[in-house]
Amino acid sequence: MNHPNIRELQKKAIEIRKDILKMLTLAGSGHTGGSLSIVEILVALYYHALKNDPNNPKWKERDYFLLSKGHGCPALYAVLAEKGYFNREDLWKLRKLGSMLQGHPQLGLPGIEISSGSLGQGLSIANGIALAARLDKSDIRVYCLLGDGETNEGQVWEAAMTAAHYKLDNVCAIIDFNKLQIDGFCCDVKDMGAYFDKWKNFGWETIETDGHDIKKLMNAFDKAKTIKGMPAVIIAHTIKGKGVSFVENKVEWHGIAPKKEEYERAMKELDEALGKI
Ligand SMILES: Cc1ncc(C[n+]2csc(CCOP(=O)(O)OP(=O)(O)O)c2C)c(N)n1
Fold it and tell me: From CA 169, how far away is CA 194, in angstroms rounded?
């Protein structure tokens, strides 16, 4: 596949951050930190790794993307709108009554494959889709994005064992490894110890990468496609709140939206960053 221009994609990532902040500011609530941390992961997926067709969201040969950390959906909505899955104007109705763009993803919005938000469930669903694809002799792949805090959930590890047991090499998990969760650092809330070794010992190929470097993410997705006989997990080092200085690495920005003046400061920073690319 031809690599799209990385510089263009880096710009796109910043434009998506701007959309996320506008959506959240207009909504007056939502998850800022964990949306901003996954932008490059989604860009690398939707502009490189994922077989998808915005004009035909239910295309039988599409790859699946499941946002298991559903609270990060403003980022997914912004990418889906940019790809043309639905009207960009819908973004500004985030969390409004009657809008399809709720605070957590729900089925019915084009491009959304599962309702999510109750953490810990996405990987189990990914396994089901992957097993069905095997029965259908289909070569589609299933991508599932989880938060690192989310992997405190026991169901994640049941799913990890299942994927390894059935040698689901059509499953690719991605961990948004931003080291923070809802009310503190992951290592303080519940330390997961030797995180990489855990995945390895559960039978997964582990690929470590910089979760804000689009080129490296593309390479990681390419590598994951070559792994046979076992599932692969991409552990992507990220910064919660990435791109906005006063939001980065601040736990208090987990579940709040910017106020008007914070929005304006953030836009200024992002416009400056855009100018430097
Ligand atoms: C089953 C379940 N338990 C608790 C929550 C509340 N909750 C929402 S976000 C969150 C933290 C998740 O941390 P992480 O996956 O690291 O998300 P990120 O820091 O990337 O936003 C929690 C505990 C939930 N949504 N679902």
Answer: 23
